[in-house]
Amino acid sequence: MFDHFAWSVLVAPALVSIALRLVADRLPPGRGAYVVAWSAAATAAASLANLLVFALKAVAQVPAVGTAFGWSAHTVHQDTAHVAWAPILSVGLLTASVTAVSVKARRHRRVLAEARSLTDGTATVLVLPDERPEAFAVPGRPGRIVVTTAMREHLTATQLDAVIAHEQAHLDAGHHRLVALADLAAVGHPALWWVARHVGYLVERDADEQAARAVGNRRTVAHAIGRASLAAPPALGLGLNAAGRGGAIPRRVASLLDPPRPGASHWQLLPLALAASTLVWTGEAAWDLIELLLKAGMGS
């Protein structure tokens, strides 16, 4: 069984992270965000499932458990006796990972609730009286766009339209889900930490491109993003915003000032194939554990 642990917990996450680094910027930003987030999420889920399988094996090889369920704990133990540390380590890693994912998920829900508390009412675009220059999207049904009076004063009417189009793109594409998915994957497995930061960048780039199409002028969006980022304070983390999370403002502005480049879709197959392989391998690990317990039951 150890080969499953080695692949899904140790090797595949590192390979997927490397593949995503190579592929992410070769794809259109919207597609890249989906590929990066879902490949990472599948890889993290497979890793956690493998840890669960080995944690169950650690429990199954306890003599008292074997006696209670009618199987040979010795037979279960012998399957990975050459790497006796793996099942025990899996218990600790699983506990730490599940705790980290739970804490991150609760934080996402709390931040989203705080953001939604600012958007009572029916207006799609809500202008709040505030001296801090802010503009961000708050997902929901329906979603809301929040713009402070200070941000409105920093932008021309055309630039404000571009920023609002950018925030609307976040809502239309459901970017907050991809960001949350990537964040959970990153805390689920440390090898995927880069993913969360880059998905943030990719969703901002995708919103930039959608805003440019909506406004009809890439240069206008570039100027609006640059001006908004100079005016905005450090991000509050209440929503996706043109000047906040995802960063790399000079890189985003430079991309908008250049003509759009078509991405090569075949590159997405590399990380997706690696992620799929680790899911399949994890399924085999679960089946191997079942077969091992059946064998141990017959030999008890």
Automatic annotation (TrEMBL):
InterPro entries: Beta-lactam_resp_regulator, Peptidase_M48. GO terms for molecular function: metal ion binding; metalloendopeptidase activity. Residues 113-183 form the Peptidase M48 domain. Binds 1 zinc ion per subunit. One of its GO terms (biological process) is proteolysis. It holds the Pfam family Peptidase_M48. Its cofactor is Zn(2+). It comes from the Bacteria. Keywords: Hydrolase, Membrane, Metal-binding, Metalloprotease, Protease, Transmembrane, Transmembrane helix, Zinc. The chain crosses the membrane at residues 6-24, 36-60, 80-103. Belongs to the peptidase M48 family. This is Peptidase M48 domain-containing protein. It comes from Catellatospora coxensis.
